[in-house]
Amino acid sequence: MRAASWAASWYDGASYVTQCPVYPGDCTSHRWTVNEAPGTYMWHGHSGSDRGEGLAGMVVRSCFFLNDWWHTPGSVAGMPLNRPFDSARQTNKTGGWHWVNNPQALTMNGKGNWMDCNLNAGGNSTPPLTCNVTDYWVPPGASAVQPWMSAASLGCVHANVTVSAGKTYLFRIANAAQLAYQTICLEGHDVTLVAADSVPIEPIAASQLNASRPGCVNINSGQRYDVLLTADQPAGNYWISTHVQYRPGSPSGYAVLHYRGAADALPTTPPPQPQTVGPWGLPELAMIVMSSTLLAANATKFEGLEVAAQKVPAADLRLTFNITQPLMNQTRQIRWAINNVVGLRAPPCQALLDLLHADPNWLGKQSGTGGKVQVFLTTADGSNPPPIYPVAGTHLVPLKRGQVVELVLQNLPANSFNGDYRVPAGQNRTAMEQHPFHLHGHHFWVLGSGEGIYSPAGTNASTNASALNTLNPPRRDTATLPQAGWVVVRFVADNPGVWLFHCHLLWHEMMGHAAMFVTDIGAVPPPARKGRSKCSKTCVYNAAPWDVPTVQMEFGSSGFELPRAG
Ligand SMILES: [Cu+2]
């Protein structure tokens, strides 16, 4: 499980990073002190496709908990992502690599609808939503429609959120989606954002962010917003709709904001359609800034709880993470890479934190060596240049406690750094996508974001660096790297431990979109509980520097990070 994790580095929950996963038949229990910055946190499984299959929720209820849904288990839907391309180096839909495609439904608080059946109930004559079954991955031998919708199983439920007229509510919105950057819209009601990723922000109405879409909040996977909503409209029923950005053809999700005393019915207005709801742009995102209360001189408490220093300190070191989507010569797998390294969680079957705690010099011994899983370091001093060809390995970034790290995330075309093995088609493949990057164990300041290539200070007269906001930037733990763009974040490495930094799109993470910051392991206090559980000796990883036959053998039919039979 991954939950709020300060000073709990042994139990952060990322499997094989800080601990072994909870194997089938095992159990674990957690007890923790609620002593962190007030705000909204979620918990979710952090092994394989746990999160996508329902092992997720919020620490506090009273929420809009958003997710996306596939009607096949994540281990099945995601398995083709591991398969190598065929010998012609092209996608092969019969047994080879295959993308999971768009989600099949969006859910809110665990409920959702499949296609249009619910919307046409109650006399609603709105045309069906534009969704196309052929866009979706269908298990071999299964009907494209069954069992997801039939006369006997409509698969249609929706969440009802009941409010009383005249009252103001605090709603906590969280997006746990595997893939979907979502916009949630509250029909007829503006909302005021008051916190982002558990950090209090200067209150701002959704209508101030985008006047044409009042009541709409954009939220990427992993992010949270607290919003205030006043039930100030005529008593009735109003649509709560969720829409997927950047992935056209995805279904939308629908729920109902219901006024107490009104008829129990669907809204009479047409349900909002996805094409009418666009995403916030970079200028809007930059308007979501820290609360001025937090920025006040000597502010150390917020609502009675300690808060970390909120002033943005100068950077001690600068790192650049170049983000690409290589098709690897090594394994013929398509992956996501950071500095040309496709990230594995850890050496097989051992939690990296255990390993490092037992031998603080382990890191220095591993750099550049071989083995079943190779270790790659990114450092600020240039002594560890990225590999020339994309490789899979454990990607670590050693930090000293207290260092202020400025990190540039730069989106680059897929064929950068010898990243496109596919010839001749796709030789100039330039695919790029947006990525919500999430850092465990810390918050960071989001100093700036833009299109194109980031230009650091000193390179030309009008650098992007000179425009970074270090006065009152957004502060959060999940930031969007825009497609074909960059984002600069800064954080204080004040939490000893091994901290996963990963794209919060589950399928991307499975395809290697992760690295780990390693901070001052010697300062990690001993685990609260003696007798750390041992990992299974027979776990399986979703990428490795193996040859093609090995990958085919390992992933022809097996699961992610699961103990194998025998
Ligand atoms: Cu990603």
From TrEMBL:
Domain Plastocyanin-like stretches: 8-60, 64-262, 389-520
Stored InterPro entries: Cu-oxidase-like_N, Cu-oxidase_2nd, Cu-oxidase_C, Cu-oxidase_fam, Cupredoxin
Cross-referenced Pfam families: Cu-oxidase, Cu-oxidase_2, Cu-oxidase_3
CDD domains for this protein: CuRO_2_LCC_like (cd04205)
GO terms, molecular function: copper ion binding; oxidoreductase activity
Domain of life: Eukaryota
Protein family (similarity comment): Belongs to the multicopper oxidase family.
Protein name (database record): L-ascorbate oxidase-like
